[in-house]
Design goal:
With 255 residues, the chain is of the alpha+beta class. The chain has two domains: 196 residues, Beta Barrel (Cyclophilin), CATH 2.40.100.10; 33 residues, no CATH class. It has seven helices and ten strands. Strands 3-4-8-6-9-2-1-10 form an eight-stranded antiparallel β-sheet. Strand 3 and strand 4 form a beta hairpin. The two termini are 42 Å apart. The relative contact order is 0.21. About 3% of the residues have low confidence. It comes from Sphingobacterium deserti. Its EC number is 5.2.1.8.
């Protein structure tokens, strides 16, 4: 009788362990919801740039970006934020030099380009092109004709040729091709790209700071939220059942 009871207990524990492994699947990407005074958007972080991805996840999860301003806005170019000095900045205060006391090594990838809706890491003029520890920009840019890209190659890029993939992106979606190879691109918006257009359309002062403060807040999706997002993107239903919620109790919300 005792052995039978013990076997039932062991079987139950084994089932929990196996179920926990099955249900503890890890999402492919990290995702961040960004709320602004001009709309909300969903950001996917690239795995090809792990140092930038992990740093951004850490800062978002700590609430670092909450209440910071988009302090530099240039229409048809980009919108920039992430300076911690902007949280309590006075009107007309110069911004753009704040951040953690570290930089991130450059992680430029040939296929990760400055098409509209991507996020890039801001930096100063350091020769190694290391990124700011916190400041970032969203690309707005503009749509180019092939003739305009020909001119860009000849004059601004000093003869360097754009790839077919670059030309396709910049003549359809648009962006800022002259930044490619100079700044690390580490993610792209899954939705809410119009938020960038809304921010880029505001009135700014002589230093490109919006006349009216534009604030942000960010939230990292949990493991389950990210998994369900990826399931829905693949045409599958989200997992929200009792069994899923039960096994999620034994898994971390982070990944």
């Amino acid at each position: 009788m005792m052995n039978q009871h013990l076997r039932k207990i062991l079987t139950f524990v084994f089932t929990l362990l196996v179920g926990g492994v099955v249900f503890a699947k890890t999402p492919v990407f990290h995702y961040v919801v960004i709320k602004t005074d001009k709309g909300t958007c969903l950001l996917k972080l690239y795995n090809e740039t792990p140092k930038h991805r992990d740093n951004f996840v850490k800062l978002v999860d700590s609430g670092y970006y909450d209440s910071l301003l988009f302090h530099r806005v240039i229409h048809n170019f980009m919108v920039q934020g992430g300076d911690p000095d902007s949280r309590y900045a006075a009107e007309k205060q110069a911004l753009g030099n704040g951040g953690p006391d570290y930089t991130i090594p450059a992680e430029m990838q040939e296929g990760l380009i400055h098409k509209k809706g991507t996020i890039g890491a801001a930096r100063d003029d350091n020769p190694a092109k290391q990124s700011s520890g916190s400041q970032f920009y969203f690309v707005q840019g503009r749509v180019f004709s092939n003739a305009a890209l020909d001119s860009l190659e000849q004059f601004r890029l000093k003869g360097k040729k754009l790839s077919d993939a670059q030309r396709k992106a910049y003549t359809t979606v648009g962006g800022t091709p002259h930044l490619d190879g100079n700044y690390t691109v580490f993610g792209e918006l899954m939705n809410g790209v119009e938020t960038i257009d809304n921010i880029a359309a505001v009135k700014t002062d002589e230093k490109d700071r919006p006349i009216r403060d534009l604030r942000m807040s960010m939230k990292l999706l949990t493991r389950r939220e990210a998994l369900n997002l990826e399931r829905e993107a693949a045409g599958l239903p989200a997992k929200t059942g009792v069994l899923t919620r039960f096994f999620d109790l034994f898994s971390s919300k982070r990944y």
